[in-house]
Design a protein that fits this description.
This protein folds into two domains: 250 residues, Aspartate Aminotransferase, domain 2 (3-Layer(aba) Sandwich), CATH 3.40.640.10; 134 residues, Aspartate Aminotransferase, domain 1 (Alpha-Beta Complex). Helices cover 39% and strands 15% of the residues. It is built from 15 helices and twelve strands. Bound molecules: pyridoxal-5'-phosphate.
Length: 388
């Protein structure tokens, strides 16, 4: 399907709302019926009828049609957070006694689900280094029901070969779920490689303006309906009409934002690579990235997120660098208009800082929509502050 058509038209029927160009925010909790039989049908199949906005809502529906089309999926659900999408996707596909294989260090709240919540229901998880298919093969047990992936990983940037893993899982009748937040469906389409369920934090590029928390889960109709009828309605974790409207607004510019960010990131990465104070940079589309070939094979793009390491063993220098940036904000998240940085050392007490532990020294950076030179000049300011 044509990307411009999806972003500008799909799911929209302006005649239904006074030919307004922008879709309306249908801010309602419930929908009325004229006939008992219509209401009866809605009770029987809430997945296909507007009944109550915890389920379907017209504004959300416009958005979900677009997002499913982007993923190349039959349908999708839009959640109130990416974490909610992860929870529903996994929870809907395990039962007591099951086993999950997850890629090492997935998103924090996926880890909490695997380590804290699911063990209470007798569901266990094995973490594997996802760079080698053999590790998945070796971890499979007779009760393995889910393989959970995140490629590229948003911290290590390690990749998994989606096609290879999807083939293995199909052979063994195991469901595959992939967190695609890093790429968005514009730059990687896991469903086309045979992955069953793909999710992403729409908080990041989909909304793209740092003002909405949301998540998307896409898959085939039978699976999405099953999750809708159960976890989705039961937990009440769908997005709201207003947030859906903001995401529709964000989507209009998704491809231009990603293109701009990709170009800027190339320049920022090149600047950092040539800087004598930089020890290493980790970015999937960098030629020195160990899995560069796989990145080029399965991803159509890599945009704003990468990591770098300053040549220093002193936590103070890393802190000084970050605190002297004037425009790049020190904040979590990414995918918005503003450039961001997270120092790994913020996750450890100063006395526990260990220069030999890579994560402690890591600076994860996100390149936003600013001009490349504006960002580079800010980084120069940071380096200037630690010049010895
Ligand atoms: C942010 C993020 C999530 C969670 O999304 P929220 O919208 O914050 O709940 C999941 N996976 C990745 C890789 C993320 O970066």
């Amino acid at each position: 399907m044509d990307l411009s058509y999806i972003l500008n038209e799909l799911g929209e029927d302006r005649e239904l709302y006074f030919n307004s160009v922008a879709p309306p925010i249908i801010q309602t909790s419930n929908f009325a019926f004229k006939k008992v039989d219509e209401m009866r049908k809605a009770f029987q199949d809430e997945y296909s009828t507007f009944l109550y906005s915890r389920g379907l809502n017209p504004t959300v529906k416009i958005l979900s049609e677009k997002l499913a089309a982007l993923d190349g999926a039959e349908d999708c659900l839009v959640f109130n957070s990416g974490a909610g999408a992860i929870f529903a996707a996994v929870f809907a596909n395990v039962k007591s006694g099951d086993h999950i294989i997850s890629v090492d260090k997935p998103y924090t709240w996926a880890q909490k689900l695997f380590n804290v919540i699911l063990p209470r229901f007798n569901v266990t998880t094995t973490y594997v280094d996802g760079r080698d298919i053999e590790n998945f093969k070796n971890a499979i047990q007779s009760n393995t029901s889910v393989i959970y992936l995140e490629t590229p990983n948003s911290w290590s940037f390690y990749l998994q070969d989606l096609k290879e893993i999807a083939n293995l899982a199909k052979e063994k009748n195991i469901l595959t779920i992939c967190d695609n937040s890093y790429c968005t469906p514009l730059y990687q389409r896991p469903i086309e490689y045979g992955i069953d369920l793909v999710l992403q934090s729409a908080t990041k590029y989909i909304n793209g303006h740092s003002d909405v928390i949301a998540g998307v889960l896409s898959g085939n109709k039978a699976m999405i309906k099953r999750i809708f009828d159960s976890e989705f309605l039961n937990m009440g974790i769908g997005t709201t009409p207003f947030n859906a409207w903001l995401m529709l607004r964000g989507l209009r510019t998704l491809d231009v934002r990603l293109a701009r960010i990709s170009e800027t990131t190339k320049k920022v990465v090149a600047f950092l690579k040539s800087n004598e104070k930089v020890e290493e940079i980790i970015f999937p589309f960098d030629k020195d990235f160990p899995q560069y070939d796989l990145a080029k094979k399965q991803m159509q793009g890599a945009c704003g997120l990468f990591s770098f390491f300053i040549k220093t063993n002193a936590i103070k220098e890393i802190e000084t660098f970050c605190e002297n940036l004037q425009h790049i904000l020190m904040a979590v998240s990414w995918g918005g208009y503003e450039s961001l940085i997270i120092p790994g050392c913020a996750s450890v007490k100063p006395e526990d800082f260990d220069a030999n532990t890579k994560e402690h020294k890591q600076l994860r950076m996100y390149v936003g929509l600013e001009d490349a030179q504006y960002i580079i000049d800010d980084l120069k300011r940071g380096f200037e502050a630690i010049k010895s």
